[in-house]
Amino acid sequence: MPKQILLNAFNMNCVGHINHGLWAHPRDTSHRYKELGYWTDLARTLERGLFDGLFIADILGVYDVYENSVDLTLRETIQLPVNDPLILVSAMAAATSNLGFGVTVNIAAEHPYLLARRFSTLDHLTSGRIGWNIVTGYLDSAARALGQTGLSEHDSRYDQADECMELLYKLWETSWDDDAVVLDRTERVYARPEKVRPINHHGRYYNVEGYHLSEPSRQRTPVLFQAGTSPRGKAFAARHAECTFINATDPASARAASRAIRKAVADAGRRPDDIKILVGITVVADQTMAGAEAKYADYRRYASPEAGLAHFSAGTGIDLSRLDLDTPIAQSADNGNAIQSNIQTARDTGLTKRKLLEKLSLGGRYPAIIGNGETIADELQTWIEEGEIDGFNLTRTVVPESFDDFIDVVIPVLQERGLYKTAYEKGSFRNRLFGHGDRLLAPHPAATLR
C-alpha cells in the first residue's frame, strides 16, 4: 500500500503571506482576515478536504531590511498588518470536529509558565487538536520591538529553546498525575492534592517554582512542529520535533534533507519515523491543463516578485534592493542571525537577484505545480516517493479558490490512487498523524520525564 500523504494548509493571520501580491486579485478575499467568519469558513473547507491541519505562521517584527524601510512592506501588505494566530483556534475548532491546528509561537516572546497554560487551554478546547510550531525568531525588528538591542546569537537562541522545552515538559507532563482529577462531589474533592506537585526549575534562562495551572489535557504536550534547517536547528528538531518543514526545490534536494534529518533523529536516540517531514508547495489546479495554465497566467499578472525580494531580504539580512541583478546574493551575507538555510541555499546554487526574481513569478519561492488533477497527483507522488517526505504545507494563492480547487480537482485523484485518506482517523491530532495514541511516547524527552 502506498504511503498516504499528510497535508496542511499553510496560512497566516494577515493579508499577504507567501505568494505576494495576489491580495490585489479581484477574486481574493484575504483582506477579510479580520473577520471570524473568514476563518471558520476556511476551517470547514479544509475539513471538507480532509486536511490534517491548518498551519498558521506568525512573525513579531516587520520586514524592514529591503530598502531599509517598511514602505514596500506596507504597500504590498507583506505579512503586515498581522494579527495574533492563537486567538483564532477556538472559533475554528468549534466549527469543525477533526481538523488539527499548528500555531506558531516565538519562545523569545512568551514566558514558558504562561505559554504552558495557553496551550493546555487550547488542547482542552479542541479536544486534543492543537500543535505548536516552535520558533526562535529571525528578525532584528522583532527583538528591538521587544526591548532588546537586537537578536541574540543564532545558536544561543536554540540553547534557550532547549531549556524552554525542558521546562514546558515538566509543566505539561509531570505537575499533574493522570488520575489527579476525580470530580467527587460526594467527598467534595475535585483534584487529589497528593497527585499534584510543583515543578522546580532553575536554569540558565528560566527560574520557575510553581504548579502547572491547567489540569491534564488530552495530549498534554501539543504536537511539536519545527522548521529550522541550520545545523543547530536540525539538532533541536532531532531532539524535540514531531513534524518538521523543509524548503526544497525538487525531490532530489528533499531526499538529501530528509535523510539528514532522519539520521539526526536516530543519532538523538529516537526512531527515524518519529518525525514527519513536510515540504512547502504551491499548486494551481484546474479540471484541464489549459484551464490551469490560463489561471496561472492570470495569477502572475497580479503577483509581486519585488515583494518576494523584500521577504527574502528579511530572511537573510541582505538588502537585495542594493544588489545588481547578477551579483551572487551570498557574497553579501554577513548576518549570522538570519535564516542560515536561506543563505546556504543561495551559496550552494549561486543564486542571484535575477534568478530569484524568476523563481518569484507568483511572489513566493516555493515550488509551483500547475496542472489538472492527474498531472498534479503525479508530481506530488514523485515528491513523496523520490523525496522521501511525508507530506506538504500547501500555500495559498487566491483565497479561497486555491484551497477549493485543490480539494475538488486534486484530492479525488489522490484518493483513487490510495495516496490520501477517505475519512479521518479517530483521536487526537497526534494520533491521526502517528497512530500511536494521544501522548508522546519514549524515547521522546517529554515522555521520559514522566
Give a short summary of the structure.
With 450 residues, the protein is α/β, with parallel strands linked by helices. Helix content is 39%, strand content 15%. The protein is built from 16 helices and 13 strands.
Keywords:
single chain; 450 residues; alpha/beta; TIM Barrel; two-stranded antiparallel ribbon; 13 strands; 39% helix; globular
Description of the structure:
By secondary structure, the chain is an alpha/beta fold. The chain has one domain: Luciferase-like domain (TIM Barrel), CATH 3.20.20.30. The chain contains 16 helices and 13 strands. The protein has an 8-stranded parallel β-barrel, surrounded by 6 helices. Strands 5-6 form a two-stranded antiparallel ribbon. The chain is globular. The two termini are 36 Å apart. 50% of the residues are buried.
What is the strand content?
5-15%
Taking pLDDT < 50 over at least 5 consecutive residues as the criterion, the unreliable ranges are none
Give the fraction of residues assigned to helices. Answer: 25-40%
**What is the assigned CATH homologous superfamily?**
Luciferase-like domain
User: Distance between the terminal alpha carbons, to the nearest Å?
Assistant: 36 Å
Number of strands: 13
Overall average residue pLDDT? 95
- How many separate domains? 1
In the CATH hierarchy, the third-tier topology is known as: TIM Barrel
> What structural class is derived from the secondary structure elements?
alpha/beta
**Strand ordering within the main sheet:** 1-2-3-4-9-10-11-13
Largest sheet: 8 strands, parallel, barrel
Q: Identify the CATH architecture.
A: Alpha-Beta Barrel
The dominant shape is globular
